[in-house]
UniProtKB/TrEMBL annotation:
<dbReference type="Pfam" id="PF19572">
    <property type="entry name" value="PorV"/>
</dbReference>
<dbReference type="InterPro" id="IPR045741">
    <property type="entry name" value="PorV"/>
</dbReference>
<feature type="region of interest" description="Disordered">
    <location>
        <begin position="398"/>
        <end position="431"/>
    </location>
</feature>
<feature type="signal peptide">
    <location>
        <begin position="1"/>
        <end position="23"/>
    </location>
</feature>
<feature type="domain" description="Type IX secretion system protein PorV">
    <location>
        <begin position="33"/>
        <end position="270"/>
    </location>
</feature>
<feature type="compositionally biased region" description="Basic residues">
    <location>
        <begin position="406"/>
        <end position="431"/>
    </location>
</feature>
<protein>
    <submittedName>
        <fullName>Type IX secretion system outer membrane channel protein PorV</fullName>
    </submittedName>
</protein>
<dbReference type="InterPro" id="IPR047799">
    <property type="entry name" value="T9SS_OM_PorV"/>
</dbReference>
<keyword id="KW-0732">Signal</keyword>
Length: 431
């Protein structure tokens, strides 16, 4: 559906993480009561699948499935099937705008009982835009789009511990051939990023225990900055996610409870010195910082410094931690019911919502649904619904049998049973 350009820009800002230039970003830090961390390509932070979304966006340590590539790729080697594929679809911000959606396709295969590889495609569709000039006349059409392609390698370090790495290519074209007043033109942004994950569980998936604990941690979207051609580079939504899960099994009933903590690994906007609402600058044109740190620093400094650069000190750093909690009830591995809660500090975006989910599994085919219920009225995230369809192929991978050892212990049926040496000669008398 064709939409006005300005309406789409408003919708992008409703994503809570804007794709504006970083120069605009840091000036927002002047409001000490509302200092939101924004980055480029915010679509990478949208929960793509219905199962995790139905549990409040938890995924660092939940049971492994085909969508582990997004949440924690280290879980892939603990999936039950040899192979799997999943397709998820989310109409986005449908309360205020039609035509926007997030699509996610993921697939994996196990190389053996210790290794797995995967590929994933994340596509953000902003719809078709009908552009108009200052006189209101048609100025053509533009179709903004963003996508990311990721490949993953996951490996077991033991029967209960695994690690994984993901390499991701990101493409973002949200401005088209836009030219601003000084003659500077926009361009599509490109970036390379990576993820590192670790996953631990108290026992292998094939071992049934009444209580099962799991722990997971992953750093995501560590990579190059994006340049849209306006002379400013934009940070990717790098983040650290740590989570745990406890599972209870009783007969055909299973209950999983999970908690995740999520922290951005990008600079917090500082507070600048102003006079009459205008930021004061040094003789070389750099803005004067009153509190916080300069966001334009080396990449490693921006990542590790993100734990100590908030102008409000440790209390503001704590407010930057997002909290997710969710529960899942599974009956006979066929029917699933889920509920979750997500919280973000009001000073850092103020997202707070309840999520509901359900799923069904029939042999190798599964369907999951999730529905988001925000606590704030008229929230643009309201009525967000997600659909996921997944297919599991093959049984759980079993280690290759040692044929040499098996054949050694296996008696040839054509071989006659041998008598003990002392009885071979019937003329030898027993003593």
């Amino acid at each position: 559906m064709k939409q006005r350009y300005n309406k789409v820009i408003i919708s992008i800002f409703c994503l809570i993480a804007s794709s504006s230039t970083y120069a605009q970003l840091v000036l927002n830090g002047q409001d000490t009561s509302y200092r939101v961390i924004t980055t480029a390509v915010p679509f990478l932070t949208i929960a793509p699948d219905a199962r995790a979304a139905g549990m409040g966006d938890v995924g660092a340590a939940t049971n492994a499935d085909v969508n582990a590539t997004y949440w924690n790729p280290a879980k892939l080697v603990f999936t039950k099937a040899d192979k799997g594929i999943s397709l998820s679809y989310t109409p986005w911000l449908r309360r205020i705008l039609s035509g926007m959606s997030v699509s996610y396709l993921s697939a994996y295969t196990k190389l053996d009982d210790k290794q797995a590889i995967a590929i994933a495609l994340n596509y953000f569709n902003l719809g078709n835009l009908s552009l108009k000039d200052n006189s209101g006349q048609g100025a053509g059409e533009f179709r903004p789009r963003e996508f990311a392609i990721a490949t993953t390698y996951s490996r077991k370090l033991s029967e209960v511990l695994s690690m994984a790495a993901t390499l991701r290519y990101i493409y973002s074209d949200i401005y088209g051939n836009l030219t601003i007043g000084n003659g500077v033109s926009s361009q599509a942004g490109n970036a390379i990023a990576g993820d590192l994950g670790i996953y631990f569980r108290t026992s292998p998936p094939e071992v049934s225990t009444p209580v099962q604990f799991a722990f997971g941690a992953v750093v995501s979207n560590l990579g190059t900055q994006i340049n849209y051609g306006f002379g400013q580079k934009n940070y990717l939504p790098a983040n650290l996610r740590i989570g745990t899960q406890v599972g209870f099994t009783l007969g055909f009933n299973q209950i999983n409870l999970a908690v995740d903590l999520n922290k951005w690994l990008v600079p917090t906007p500082p507070v600048y010195k102003t006079r009459n609402g205008v930021v004061e600058r040094t003789t070389d044109g750099r803005p004067i910082i009153l509190h916080g740190k300069d966001p334009n620093r080396s990449y490693l400094s921006s990542v590790f410094g993100s734990f100590t650069d908030a102008p409000g000190g440790i209390s503001e750093e704590i407010h930057e931690i997002m909290f997710s909690a969710g529960g899942e009830y599974i009956f006979n591995d066929m029917f699933m019911f889920r509920m979750g809660y997500f919280y973000e500090s009001p000073s850092k975006g103020g997202r707070e919502y309840l999520s509901l989910g359900a799923g069904a599994q029939l042999k190798s085919i599964g369907l999951d649904l999730a529905y988001l219920v925000p606590f704030q009225q008229n929230n643009p995230l309201g009525e967000t619904i997600r659909f996921s369809l997944h297919l599991d192929i093959g049984d759980e991978f079993k280690p290759t049998e040692d044929k040499t050892r098996t054949n050694k212990n296996k008696r040839n049926p054509n071989t006659k049973k041998q008598r003990p040496p002392q009885y071979k000669n019937k003329h030898i008398k027993r003593r």
